[in-house]
Specification:
It catalyses: L-tyrosyl-[protein] + ATP = O-phospho-L-tyrosyl-[protein] + ADP + H(+). Belongs to the protein kinase superfamily. Tyr protein kinase family. 28% of the residues lie in helices and 25% in strands. The protein is of the alpha+beta class. Among the domains are: 100 residues, 2-Layer Sandwich (SHC Adaptor Protein), CATH 3.30.505; 81 residues, Phosphorylase Kinase, domain 1, CATH 3.30.200; 32 residues, no CATH class.
Length: 312
């Protein structure tokens, strides 16, 4: 029992820092991870990441990606590439900017994502009840498993957001191979490209804006992140630093900053989601006298804070 506990500890740490889909043996693997791998389902990745993954995979009509909902781990989101016909005189809708308050955490509207090639990415919500039955939101028919649900609609076709489409091919999660450690596909970019603009000085960390590199099936993906670098003078805080990261990795909510992971090497770095406007308290202090912070804006932010606190 002690040996299994030790292996489970190492396995969980490796999933946190290196490969989210890795497990040493079924005896220590989380049941949810085994379920996701069986169903070719991604974890609670963001909508932006899912869309980018489909685009890199070719975005052919019928290509789909299944992922867990970041807000409710017992619900699933199905994103499908669909071919649509646009009238020649109908311009593509512009990208709608998020209001400032929405930038405290990334939330994706439940709307079609338009592309210039006449394709849309349609999204469907799949729910699961306490008895383990699955169904598409808005439809009454229940299924005993995700595979049964997807198999049925793969054969019959699917109606979503006013368009009919087919499920032709899955875009599955790809666990890292044995040789991936040498190339470190999900590692940070090496210095000096690693660290960019200095954002702040914490009590025992230096905070930078940086880039995170991830290797996907058809190349690399770069995304902006926040890097919290542990000061060398506070090396004695490393254990507490990693414990905080472990706790944060278990939290997933659209109004909480996402933890991408931890980089260990010459420096200990916590990698977090980049939030455009930074910490809320600093933003309020900076803009309180410029008329940018309206009453309606404050109410919107207060509502988001309430949702986040209720989740915690």
């Amino acid at each position: 029992q002690e040996a299994l506990s030790f292996v489970a500890l190492l396995d969980g740490y490796y999933r946190l820092t290196a490969d989210a889909h890795h497990y040493f043996c079924t005896e220590v693997a989380p049941p949810r991870l085994l379920e996701d791998l069986e169903n070719l389902c991604h974890g609670p990745i963001s909508s932006e990441f899912a869309i980018a993954k489909l685009k890199r995979a070719g975005k052919q009509p019928g290509l789909y990606l299944l992922r867990r909902s970041p807000q409710d781990f017992d619900s699933f989101l199905l994103t499908v590439c669909a071919q649509v016909r646009l009238a020649p005189s109908l311009p593509l809708p512009p990208t709608l900017p998020l209001p400032p308050a929405g930038d405290w955490a990334v939330g994706t509207p439940w709307l079609p994502c338009w592309t210039r090639s006449g394709q849309e990415l349609r999204r469907c919500l799949i729910r699961r009840d306490e008895e383990g039955s699955f169904w598409l939101a808005g439809l009454a028919r229940r299924f005993g498993s995700l595979q049964e649900l997807l198999g049925t609609y793969r054969h019959r076709g699917l109606q979503a957001e006013g368009a009919r489409m087919r499920l032709a091919a899955c875009c599955p999660p790809l666990p890292r191979g044995e040789g991936a450690g040498r190339g470190d596909p999900t590692s940070l970019l090496p210095p000096p490209r690693l660290q960019g603009e200095s954002l702040a000085q914490g009590s025992f960390t230096q905070i930078f804006k940086g880039l995170r590199r991830q290797q996907q099936e058809l190349g690399h993906c770069h995304s902006q992140v926040v890097l919290k670098v542990l000061d060398l003078s506070h090396r004695n805080c490393t254990e507490s630093f990693l414990e905080a990261a472990s706790t944060m990795s278990q939290l997933s909510h659209k109004h909480l900053v996402l933890l991408h992971g931890v980089s260990l090497g010459k420096e200990t770095i916590m990698v977090q989601e980049y939030v455009r406007y930074g910490p809320l308290d600093l933003y309020l202090k900076k803009n309180q006298g410029e008329g940018k912070v309206t009453t309606s804006w404050k109410l919107q932010v207060a509502k988001q804070l309430a949702y986040a606190l209720n989740y915690l």
